[in-house]
Request: fold
Amino acid sequence: PEDPDEPGEIESVGTGSTKKIHYEDLLETNQVSEQAGRLLPTAIGYKGHAYALFDNKEYGLTYQEIEAYCVKMGGHLAVINNAEENFMLYMLAVRNGQQTAFFGYSDEAVEYRWEWVYGDSDYERWNQKSNQPDNGGVSDAGNENYAQFMAGAGDGTWDDARLDANTTCYICEWEENAAIPDHVDPPEANKTDPSGGSGTGKNPGPEPGPQENVPPQIFPDSSNTYLTDAQVNALSAEDVQKAINEIYARNGYRFKDPAWLAYYEQYDWYNGTIPSDQFDAAKEFNQIEFANVEKLRIRRDALKARGG
Reply:
């Protein structure tokens, strides 16, 4: 994909010419983005609105359920009105390690009749080189009902895709002056798993009822709940590292350090099957885990800097 440190290039509407724009130059901090950031930490502000990535990896929600969750947070799935906004949302995905993301455009209700979830935008930017939207060509004909940035294209053009194809990230949008709640519980996971199993397969920690003779986890729910500054700032250097490591442990990370490996092998739920040099946090972590690990690392580095 396009180097996120370079300026983007978009077509000036109606002129056929292009102009260069920088992502950082268009970002803004506004009241809506600050409020949305309490719910989804990837939130950015742009022209009075806010946008953020919601990761469906842990939940397996349907398209309608994802839209309903965005609405519950005071927003809706993102609606793109022009080339500049399209660039900003594409770069939001790129800056968060994604080649693509879904937004609020679908022909799920009526095949070939593409509709936005909100408003009356008539903007489209399908990838013409591969004749999109193609409804999956031959092999998946009829199954590609959701618009996303085309993975690998690197230019913010669109593809139609199946739900959760290429990415599990969806962009929520909040309008200017949106009523955003202070807290929204994570959605309940859809028990129907696309792979044929049930749930996510992640080891969330001990089953109800404490396991005897082992130390408690620092934050047993840190894979499902965002940590607060107060929680993190109360930790010692040792407990910060444990809090980071337990998130890795839940995702199958096999510790290279024998002491850490022995520590987590105390727990019945630990299943360290992924060698440290093969572990890819981008694939294993959900959005909450990414945010929590980053917050914990900031605390750890601050403690190290002052010898704590």
